Amino acid sequence: MYAIAIFRYRRTLDEVLKVIEEHRAYMRELKARGTLIASGPLDPRYGGAAIFRLPDQGSDALLIQLRDGDPYVKKGVAQWEVWNWVPGIGREDLDRL
Predict the structure, then answer these.
(1) Which member of 44, 59, 85, 88 lies 3.0 to 4.6 Å from 2 by CB, making a disulfide possible if both were Cys?
(2) pLDDT digits (tens, 9 = 90+) for 78-90
(3) Which helix (H) or strand (E) holds 13?
(4) Which CATH architecture has domain 2-86?
(5) What angle do CA 19, 4, 23 make, to 5 degrees?
(6) β partners of residue 36
(7) Per-residue pLDDT tens for 27-66?
(8) 2-28 b/e with 16+ CB inside 10 Å = b?
(9) Nearest one of 49, 48, 46, 50 to 12, comparing CA atoms
(10) How far, CA to CA in Å, does 88 sit from each of 26, 38, 85, 91?
(11) How many CB atoms lie within 10 A of CB 77?
């Protein structure tokens, strides 16, 4: 199972930037665990996006844990919008990552 997340900033960019290193460390940790495939800011800079690889069972609960563990969410500077995603074209490429 895969999921797509959009991070929407809820504070000014200056406030977000005060938390960005904590958020990036969190994302690097998820990448090291194999949960995160890729993430980064949107352009223009009003939020960010991520693609996650999740187990087929329990993905909804895991997404809540991932969201609640993000320093952006903990400090109230951004919110997550997430969707489970079933890629059709290119799935084999994602599976190889």
Answers:
(1) 85
(2) 999 999 999 999 9
(3) helix 13-17
(4) 2-Layer Sandwich (3.30)
(5) 10
(6) 52
(7) 999 999 999 999 999 999 999 999 999 998 888 899 999 9
(8) bbebebebeeeeeebeebeeebeebbe
(9) 46
(10) 29, 18, 9, 6
(11) 22
Task: Yes or no: say if 10 and 74 are a contact pair by the CB < 8 Å rule.
Answer: no
Task: Write the CB contacts of 91 (distance below 8 Å, at least 6 apart in sequence).
Answer: none
Average pLDDT over residues 61-75: 96
For residue 33, give every residue at least 6 positions away whose Cβ sits within 8 Å of its Cβ, in sequence order, or none: none
* Helices within 19-90 (DSSP H only): 20-32, 59-69, 71-74
Nearest Cα residue to 77 out of 7, 6, 1: 7
